[in-house]
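hi! just following up on the protien thing from before. the input was this:
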Amino acid sequence: MREISVKVFRFDPSCDTTPHLQNYLVSVKEGARVLHVLHAIHDEHDPSLSYRYCCGSGQCGSCAVKLNGQPVLACMEEARDEMIIEPLDLPIKKDLIVDMDPYLDRISSLVPGAEFRMPAPDEVEAIKPLRSCIECLACVSACPALKVIDFAGPAAMREDMRLSLDPRDTCDRVTEAVSEGLFTCTSCQSCWKVCPKNIEIPGKAIEKLRALANRKGLTLPRHEEVEKLVRETGRSVDRTGTTFLEQVPEILEPYGEVKATVGFFVGCMYNMRLPQTALDAMEVLRRNGIRVIIPKEQVCCGSPLIRTGQVEFLDTLKSRNINAYVFRNIDTVMTMCAGCGSTLKNDYQTPFKVMDINEVLLRYGIEPPARLPVKATYHDPCHLLRGQGIRTQPRELISKVVDLVEMPAICCGSGGGVRSGMPQEAAALGENRRNEIDKTGADLVISSCPFCEFHIKEHTDKPVKNVATVLLEGYREKDRRTAQKETC
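and the predicted 3d structure came back as:
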């Protein structure tokens, strides 16, 4: 047996004015789950504690709660000392019990027709990745869109996609999904990452539904404009000045010894809208011994088209991009854009390795920059954190230059076509991001994604900079101090 200290959310609307966290010290066996801790509190300390559970084996979804801020199944998650147990981010009925009915009611059921046909083997295989949902609503709790706009939610979208593949169902699930908020999803992937059954709702359901919607002519007009721009120009954003690709040669040699050679996939935003940030990154790479090869024929990675379901032109983009690096015998392609990196890693089949710039810099090591007297907070781009699993690397680099204060990793609202197609939702999510930034008291916001940087700038009065730009400022300060010493 071991003792565990735990804080549990308590709130009874019938007698409490505000919620509070209650401290408990309980004894449980080694390997106990969170549910065992709740049982111990209920049985030995406070029988008024309310929570749901049923099977106790991860099959019913009843016991979903938040553990230290993340949705989990209480029966499956190992108990930890000093953990905080809270209800899902849904309307609270009492303590850890939430009102699930409004969300479960929006999940469709199969509507059979007069003629009955069982799914063929290939249809069964297509349905399999979507059918293991236990309706725990962890995904609904984690969805940022649901906090600012009417949306049936990721669980409902998953079921709409599943039913659209089932020949026994007679309803138009694609049109239904559009009416229930299909295009409000930001592709942040939070739903997938908290799903106890690991259902890839963004890629296997929402993006597929959007592709079906596209065939029905239901794509949002602004998304159609982006697709047309990609077809005509190879880029998903308009030119605003001299592009990055127009300012650099094909090969940038490092200033000292060559540690490594990478091909650089610049992406549309850093090429067309934020070229100076990409130029800053090249300076950092060259200073740290990285030779950079920059094929001029590279085009949009296709992420804006994949996320909005417009995939007819995708193979052309993939072929052109892959060939640009294969032709030059490049074995490592580096990205700066979180969305581009996630797309090349997860949606392409590349004959070369794809690495984010933060990974590259840490793999080969960097010259220590000067520290700056600045307190900064870091915004995790969704396509970097959840799309590529990159969390510690940017923080390690940032901490070499400034003092870092953390904030919750929530979506800023710029992804999934939401900024262009659902601007009010994007603005509301941007305001949520601003509120968290303000809580940190930071002087500076740092990120590693052009869409996030561009969007957050509209929702904070703090400067917003890329990791590479902050590193370059550290190097310039180091050079300034060295020059000052030499003149003295």
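The two ends are 66 Å apart (CA to CA).
The domain at 234-364 is CATH 3.40.50 (Rossmann fold).
cheers
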